[in-house]
Amino acid sequence: MNQIIRERKPAKVGAVFDSKEAADAAVADITTEQSLNEAWVMVITPDDPRYERKLQPETRGIWKTAVGSHLILGLLGLVAGAALYGGLHATGVAWVTNTSLLGLIPFLSVGLLVGMMLGGLITLRPDQDRIWFLAQTAREQNRWLVVVHGASQASVQRAREMLTPACSEIATSF
């Protein structure tokens, strides 16, 4: 999975706070925690014009994820299509054995298409929709959002444990 998702901090947790003071206190707690020293911690204010950049700071990592996921999963789709064709050919399925190598083209095409579609799905990062929705809701309700970008799911889980008692809402990417 690390070869497909190429962001340095792919895991996130977002927590909503009712006041600036509560958000600042949570940031202070997170930044002093030894196990979270590699995490990026950002506060999104209700009127923050750059909140999108704070939610998704790694534009280069996103491009690497887009290219890598499409290439890797597209190639895996080609291999899967060829393997399916080979398996059907080896078992003697008539409509495959009667078409010579031209029958391989649809299998390769569908395999490539499915692989590329999965690459697109990974690039969209649907696991982060919950955090984006939380950010929009917090901004609309004049509340503060603390976002912790972690390198591992374990660091994000630790941040979630620390943020949960003080926040009013919380969401995590998987």
Query: Which radius of gyration do the C-alpha atoms yield?
Result: 22 Å
- The gross shape turns out to be elongated
Q: Tell me the series of helices and strands, N- to C-terminal.
A: EHEHHHHHEHE
* Unreliably modeled segments: none
Query: What CATH architecture label of the largest domain applies?
Result: 2-Layer Sandwich
Q: Strand order across the biggest sheet?
A: 2-3-1-4
Provide the CATH top-level class of the largest domain: Alpha Beta
Measured as a percent range, the helix fraction is 55-70%
Layout of helices and strands, plus pairs?
Layout: E1 11-17, H1 20-32, E2 40-44, H2 51-55, H3 59-90, H4 94-97, H5 104-124, H6 129-140, E3 144-150, H7 153-163, E4 169-172
Antiparallel strand pairs: 1-3, 1-4, 2-3
Helix pairs in contact: 3-5
Textual characterization of the structure:
- This protein is α+β, with helices and mostly antiparallel strands and about 170 residues long.
- The chain folds into two domains: about 10-55 and about 125-170, Alpha-Beta Plaits, CATH 3.30.70; about 60-125.
- Helices cover about 55% and strands about 15% of the residues.
- It is built from seven helices and four strands; from the N terminus they run βαβαααααβαβ.
- It has helices at about 20-30, 50-55, 60-90, 95, 105-125, 130-140, 155-165; strands spanning about 10-15, 40-45, 145-150, 170.
- The protein has a four-stranded antiparallel β-sheet with strand order 2-3-1-4, sandwiched between helices.
- The longest helix is centred in the middle third of the chain and has 32 residues, at about 60-90.
- The radius of gyration is 22 Å and the shape is elongated.
- The protein starts with 10 loop residues before the first strand and ends with a strand.
- The model has no long low-confidence stretch (mean pLDDT about 90).
